[in-house]
Known about the structure:
There is one protein chain. The chain is mainly α and 449 residues long. The protein has 2 domains: 23-49 and 304-449, no CATH class; 53-284, Glycosyltransferase (Alpha/alpha barrel), CATH 1.50.10.10. The chain has helices at 3-13, 32-49, 84-88, 98-110, 165-181, 196-204, 240-259, 263-284, 303-311, 317-332, 377-385, 389-406, 434-447, and strands at residues 50-51, 56-58, 62-63, 70-71, 82-83, 117-118, 124-125, 133-134, 141-142, 190-191, 194-195, 217-218, 237-238, 337-338, 341-342, 372-373, 420-421, 427-428. Strands 5-8-9 form a 3-stranded antiparallel sheet. Strand 17 and strand 18 (427-428) form a beta hairpin.
Amino acid sequence: MKKSILAIFALALMSLGNGQSNSMVQDPILSSGDYRFLEALTATIIDSSRIFPGQHVADGMGTNNTGMALIKPGGRGSYPAFWIRDYAMSLETGFVSSHEQRDMLILTASTQANSTWITKNGALVPFGAIADHIRMDDSLPIYFPGTYSYEDQGTPEFGRTPPYGDQFFFVHMAHYYVETTADVSILDKEINGMTLIDRLEIAFNVPPARLTDHIVTTTDHFRGIDFGFRDVMTITGDLCYPSILKYKAALQLADVFGKLNNEVKAQKYSLIAAKIKDAIPLLFMDDRGMLKASTGKGNQADVWSTALAIYYGILSEEKTKKTSRFLSQAYENGHLSYKGNIRHILTTDDFSDSTAWEFSLAKKNTYQNGAYWGTPTGWVCYAIAKTNFKLAQQLAKEYVEDLRENDFRKGPEYGAPFECFHPSGHTQNPLYMTTLTCPLAAFKNMMGP
């Protein structure tokens, strides 16, 4: 392979939260005590989310008949299925064994849509689509949010095509497994008559994209959810968050094709990543340095997209510093976070007095429409630390302090880590996994080796 092409994705992969170089760190983002607490709590939550063969977690379809251990989005009885997204976002903690990874990777590949079909509700499942979640009782893939029913999936409020992020998380699952086990042979493994590497390429190309720069795009009449952590929103046009995920997946495909000594395809995906990287700030950045979620409905400044783009090294150094200073000011002014947890939308950027996002199925200041989430805290800390490391430390400390105060291990009346909460008293789903796993992975990278 040409050295220049290797350099393109080798350097870029270093900024994807996996071995990320971080010269900005002079002090630990967390004290050793706080870090050990977070690490131990995360290990406990992942273990609580791990469902063993034959284990029953909920009425109905909540018995694991897959013959393998599954990791669902959290502990107790919530979300009784295998969600690709939450699992993939938790891998970089290092708390999932290689055997478990292989099993869940193959399960995901085996439920990839083997043909294009239309649900009874009129939604399209494209060939190569990856499930939103997989039932544990009968391994049936559910490609759309909002239901556990294979027959009733695909209602209009949750899109006419499956969410766009899961295809890229599938690539991440495979890349992480290969990277951490050195088992390159799995890429040539046939699953239902098709090799894994072919399945990865097909999945990558499922979400609709602009022909010029590969940015993920959607329309009002043929809408897919941009990212599952806002699946009760209507967001249309060119889409920022799934394009960030696609950038990462393109680099990962370049890397695995490099391991397979396929220079042509390694170069192809490196160039796709480069085009996406160039396009994102041009399409989505406002004059404050924030990235908007889209160019259509819901085209509001999106904290999650903005922080993740900095975390993955997509923005230039100049733009990163501008955005970092703005986020630092928003944090100091109380518009960004509450007890170390992060809103999707700054409180100053709410669409109206009645809703944070322009179109939402959730009431304002509940769930994805204005509640505060721990999932992106690590990315936001990383972004703020680019210009104000002390503030980033303060935000990280607030996040851990809330976990300590409400740690579910204190008793049944406690529930942290929650999926999200709001000072009005709203809470959603205790023992939620990515509330810990995503920040821990980011903090690990900020702490260094």
